[in-house]
């Protein structure tokens, strides 16, 4: 389970340009649109098991904010239990071959288990839902963000939560007052993007999808293998025709689980495909936010 959910990768170089503050009760990394511009929407990033402090994820938040003119939140959703980046070395060992790797494997497995067990205990579905849903509801009702469209972008561990949000359960919706003064129940988010999601139940979690969903799938991914990708694509295509909702699944040949966050920037092909996944998300946000604004203007 550890090996599958947390494929190896690398820490990217660079300095995040955002800030850290408390937002709606959670510690949060905040990336703002360029100075002098108003945000065109809110994007909430749901991280992988390395959490909200991983420099890679913060740099991605900065890119979303700068390129899309979005207000981007990267909240602490894991109760301080995120994996330490140094564990990438242990994850790499699980994929390595040779006598040296084999002899040290027991050590690395024990090290990973010492993090995974408390992480899993602190981040049950009920516990994460109790952090995430009020945070999103507050974005919907706060005067500064309540009129803006909202999207979620999730990776690996966070991808599971993207599928849960895309299900748009009636009980999860938040009641807000429209500009005309009428009360209405809104989904917690308007659209969802996920790359290399983990821990979903296929086909159940895909059949439950109601909101616009964009998926970036890695060709080399034990958590979301090709057979599940094919099933998900077929279901989403059918649902799109039957329900009139937009969905997409984009296949990234040659990419490993985790590439959209922890890909090797020195590998020209993987670095390029990491940018392609970033652009996929930005296109999705722009198109879906445009639809939300169009409906609001009707």
Automatic annotation (TrEMBL):
Annotated ranges, domain Dienelactone hydrolase: 27-169, 187-286
One Pfam family recorded for the sequence: DLH
Molecular-function annotations in GO: hydrolase activity
Designated name of the protein: Protein AIM2
